[in-house]
Specification:
This protein is mainly α. The chain has four helices and no strands.
Length: 106
């Protein structure tokens, strides 16, 4: 297929398409993204959504803004809650959605 438009018009169209593609990319703050989604943000699973809910619970209970945790988020959150005065049982339960293994998230 031949494009008879001048080079500037073709470039302008490519620029518009690039901008549209950039807007269409999922934009999620890194701290809300489950570890298994980091390589592929388009991956959508119920376990990944549970992780995001766990991050929201962490933020609500501890006042800590989410950051990308490389692993061990569940244990770190459990420790934070225990130090904040929550019972060990409540802390362990609240931290479950942040488990590294998606199969362990309730």
């Amino acid at each position: 297929m031949h494009d008879d438009r001048p080079p500037a018009a073709r470039q302008a169209r490519r620029d518009r398409l690039t901008e549209a593609a950039a807007r269409a990319r999922p934009r999620r703050p890194p701290g809300y993204v489950a570890p298994e989604k980091v390589p592929n943000l388009r991956l959508s699973t119920i376990e990944a959504e549970r992780y995001a809910v766990g991050v929201l619970v962490r933020e609500a209970l501890s006042g800590v803004r989410p950051e990308q945790l490389p692993g061990g988020a569940s244990g770190q959150f459990e420790d934070e809650l225990t130090h904040a005065g929550y019972s060990a049982e409540a802390a362990a339960h609240a931290a479950l959605p942040l488990a590294d293994d998606p199969a362990r998230r309730p």
